[in-house]
Amino acid sequence: MRPRVARSKDMSFLAPPAGLLRERRGHAHAPVTFVELFFDLVFVFAITQLSHALLEDLSLRGVLQVGLLAMAVWWVWIYTSWLTNWLDPERSPVRLGLFVLMLAGLVLSTSLPRAFGDRGLAFAAAYVFMQVGRSAFMLWALGSSKPTLTRSFQRIGAWFVASGVAWLAGAFAEGEARLALWAVAVLIEYLGPSAGYWSPGLGRSSTGDWNIEGGHLAERCGLFVIIALGESVLATGATFAGLVWTPETTAAFVVAFVGSVAMWWLYFDGVYEAASARIAGSDDPGRIGRSAYTYVHLPIVAGVIIAAVADELTLHEPLGRLEPAASAAVLGGPALYLLGLLLFKRAVFGYWSPSPLGGLAMLAALVPLTAMLTPVLLAAGAATVLVIMAAWERRLQRRQART
């Protein structure tokens, strides 16, 4: 009898405390907590690392490498946001779990510039630990309280274990082999939600199984866009502070700021609130969360990062000769941002918005002029397109409000 009691105590020690799930109140908006914002600070650093890595190598190889790392950074952040959508960050076990993920995230972030060099194993190990460890923590926290959600996270964990093999194998490879293996790992992870994480013996999940609190996820993604834009503004200010303040560098500084403001305006002036209301009131928030916020926000964030790199290049050489890579960054950042907004509106509202399409057409019209314009003039042209799009959106909103 005594050994049996001991086993019972061990099991109770390993069992999760009651009440780790967020309390749901219909369609009420669950607030983003301070510990979630604290966790996000790691990703401010990660975005800085990514932009610096891209700035140092604008070759095709460098773009592919940074693009792959950016996809990984976004994936680990968005999945943690899904976790805190279900679990209550005000509970101590959840907070401690986030702090452990923060530590691993710092290791991941510090490894980013040399992830394809001598810190590949550190990056891959930190990443796999975060993805697999977070899934295991979620299964522990759920216990037997939500069988459907538990089964979903068993499937998710299985997919992260499969991708983790490719991540770790790539860390022990070099050169093109590492890039290929890590591309396979990213492909596995990005196919997962679309495939419902189908797993042998476990079946597949439906979006109805992912009963998220839509307003909370929308706010989390909006805050990540703010993080990306904030890093861009800080980088621009820091670069300008270290330069000689000539009329040319001052003009480049103003153009960079105007472009950042226009990006903020396009996302947060009306679109953010309307999309948040749509997902919060949806009968299938998991479907919108998967498409509009999990997938489609990546090009929006990537566009901000590339635009920040373009601002740095323009500040250093406002009247210099435009290299093809620099021209691609100056126009590609805003283009990727507008493409993300176009897809975002399509995923949330179900129609193709004319303003991002018009902006993409105007940016395309600037391509033949790249050989004739200085960096600051091309950047001014791209910023002007974003301002026009912001004004267009504002006018459309006023017209809709009157009707």
Question: What would your notes on this structure say?
Answer:
With 403 residues, the chain is mainly alpha-helical. It is 76% helix and 0% strand. Helix 2 packs across helix 12 (297-316) and helix 12 runs antiparallel to helix 13. The longest helix has 28 residues, at 214-241. The chain is globular.
Quick structural summary:
This protein folds into two domains: 33-209, no CATH class; 214-402. Helix content is 76%, strand content 0%.
Cα-based radius of gyration, to the nearest Å:
22 Å
Helix coverage percent of residues? Answer: over 70%
Shape: globular
Low-confidence stretches: 1-11
Q: What are the secondary-structure elements, in order, as H or E?
A: HHHHHHHHHHHHHHH
**Could you tell me the strand content as a percent range?**
under 5%
Structural class: mainly alpha
Strand tally: 0
* Average predicted confidence as pLDDT: 91
> What is the CA–CA distance across the termini?
76 Å
Biggest beta-sheet profile: none
Number of domains: 2
DSSP summary: helix tally: 15
